[in-house]
């Protein structure tokens, strides 16, 4: 077999391993998935009228349309936290040391985690999106091309955050530390344009919300699904995704190349 064939075979094996773990131990994935669902229901049914009134008198239906794209990107950030925990567990429990003694393509270990996480993120976004549709979200103006672009953006964003989460898991001494290190991936959507427009925030706080990866990704997804203005957010979102992917990839591979944890 060629080197490429071996890499593909080993990567698919590691992918099956990670998906099997996710199926056998679904509690972490379900807990991370429950957070965006609860946030969606909370902000729509508890705070929806107040939040929509503060957005120029919009009704609850308009606020549902506004908040769902942000919650979908928040779902991606929450899901990849499980990847950091999974990678940290692998590194601390000794399985990586066993893999290093076997004739396998070493980067396939990380590739399995990354591809598995991206698939879980996309599946989680679909499930949360279904909840959004059930409570009234509609995207009647989006074309097939815009839906395809929205799907591609979601997958690319998940890929970028997953590589960062893998790096966090590799440098964490245990699962608890990995979960804490990955907390910004859950916290950042809360200070973005997920729940309210940036221009409705205090002036001193607006740069914090604007110059971070979640806001341009959310605004781009919102524009694709609702037909609102995307402006410069499109290329900013892609730039953030590519930059974080490259950073996370090299960080993870450099860290993984070191001696395994004892």
Give the arrangement of secondary structure elements.
Blueprint: H1 3-24, H2 27-46, H3 48-53, H4 60-79, H5 81-93, H6 95-100, H7 107-134, H8 144-171, H9 175-181, H10 184-187, H11 206-210, H12 214-226, H13 233-256
Explain what this protein looks like in three dimensions:
The chain is mainly alpha-helical and 262 residues long. Helix content is 75%, strand content 0%. The chain is built from 13 helices and no strands. It has helices spanning 3-24, 27-46, 48-53, 60-79, 81-93, 95-100, 107-134, 144-171, 175-181, 184-187, 206-210, 214-226, 233-256. α1 packs across α7.
Notable traits:
13 helices, 262 residues, 75% helix, single chain, mainly alpha, elongated
Number of DSSP-assigned strands:
0
Could you spell the SSE succession in H and E letters?
HHHHHHHHHHHHH
The geometry reads as: elongated
Structural class: mainly alpha
- How much is the average pLDDT? 86
Backbone CA Rg: 19 Å
Number of helices: 13
| End-to-end gap | 34 Å
User: Segments where pLDDT lies below 50 for 5+ residues?
Assistant: none
- Sheet with the most strands, sense and barrel status: none
Helix content: over 70%
Strand residue content: under 5%
């Amino acid at each position: 077999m060629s080197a490429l064939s071996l890499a593909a075979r080993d990567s698919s094996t590691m992918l099956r391993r990670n998906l099997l773990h996710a199926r056998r131990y679904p509690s972490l994935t379900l807990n991370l998935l429950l957070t965006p669902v609860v946030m969606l229901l909370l902000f729509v049914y508890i705070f929806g009228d107040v939040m929509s009134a503060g957005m120029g008198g919009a009704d609850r239906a308009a606020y549902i349309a506004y908040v769902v794209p942000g919650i979908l990107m928040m779902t991606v950030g929450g899901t990849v936290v499980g990847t950091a925990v999974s990678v940290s567990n692998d590194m601390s429990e000794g399985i990586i040391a066993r893999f290093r003694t076997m004739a396998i393509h070493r980067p396939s270990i990380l590739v399995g985690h990354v591809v598995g996480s991206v698939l879980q993120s996309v599946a989680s976004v679909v499930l949360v999106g279904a909840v959004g549709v059930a409570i009234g979200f509609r995207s009647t103006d989006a074309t097939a091309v815009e839906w395809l672009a929205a799907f591609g953006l979601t997958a690319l964003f998940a890929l970028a955050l997953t590589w960062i989460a893998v790096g966090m898991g590799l440098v964490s001494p245990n699962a608890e530390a990995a979960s804490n290190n990955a907390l910004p991936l859950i916290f950042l959507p809360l200070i973005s344009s997920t729940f309210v427009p940036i221009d409705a925030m205090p002036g001193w706080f607006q740069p914090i919300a604007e110059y971070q990866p979640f806001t341009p990704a959310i605004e781009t997804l919102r524009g694709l699904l609702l037909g609102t203005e995307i402006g410069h957010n499109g290329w900013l979102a892609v730039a953030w995704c590519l930059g974080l992917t490259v950073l996370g990839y090299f960080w993870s591979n450099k860290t993984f190349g070191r001696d395994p944890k004892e």
